[in-house]
Amino acid sequence: MIGKKNIAFGFLYLVLTAALGPYMIVNTVADIEQAYQEKQDPVQRLQSLKTNNFEEELEPLKAEQIAKANTAGILAINKIINLESPQGFIRSVHAHGNLEAVLNILAGLVLCFIALGKGIKQAISWLFIAGAILHSGMLYLAAFGQTWAFTLLMAGPWLVLAALFSLGIATVMGFRGEIVKDN
């Protein structure tokens, strides 16, 4: 069964991606929590200044003092934004990894029901595995700081699309309602 390797790869890759997602998120949550706590003082000060018509201890503030308070508040909020931006990337990486793992499982199952030459089925099978590794696999490496992985990243989505297209054509040409024994 040629699809067997996709099924095995898919389940093992799903375990890996399911484990790495929470690991990546947990490692950045503490930094975000701390940034939210650090934001409280400068933003509360700005709120207080606005409420008190930009007076502090009954004295009007000078423009420079207001600018410094604004800067402190803006930088505190910006720190949160900078820390949360990778969170969106991490969620995306995690979702792509899980999707491509399940896609390999499904592709492996479909390949079991297709009666075509072994070479065609092997090519489709390896396209799915290579697509997952070169797409979400490279995204995971990039998320862990391996920026060289971005150079290989663009091949992955094209391989996944080629695999899906090939499997669609193979299904039209050779799908059987029962498991096919590969010779």
Structural overview:
By secondary structure, this protein is mainly alpha-helical. The protein has one domain (4-174). The chain is 80% helix and 2% strand. It has helices spanning 4-51, 63-111, 118-143, 150-153, 155-174; strands at residues 55-56, 59-60. It has a two-stranded antiparallel ribbon with strand order 1-2. β1 and β2 form a beta hairpin. The radius of gyration is 26 Å and the shape is rod-shaped. The model has no long low-confidence stretch (mean pLDDT 87).
Descriptors:
80% helix; 2% strand; 183 residues; mainly alpha
- Which strand order do you get reading across the main beta sheet? 1-2
Tell the overall outline. rod-shaped
Order of helices and strands: HEEHHHH
Query: How helix-rich are the residues, as a percent range?
Result: over 70%
% residues in beta strands: under 5%
Please summarize the sheet with the most strands.
Answer: 2 strands, antiparallel
Which structural class should the secondary elements be placed in?
A: mainly alpha
- Chain-averaged pLDDT: 87
Low-pLDDT segments? none
Total strands: the figure is: 2
Oligomer kind: single chain
What Rg do the Cα atoms give?
26 Å
Tell me the number of helical segments per DSSP (H or I, 4 or more residues long).
5
Whole-number count of domains: 1
What's the topology here?
Elements: H1 4-51, E1 55-56, E2 59-60, H2 63-111, H3 118-143, H4 150-153, H5 155-174
Antiparallel strand pairs: 1-2
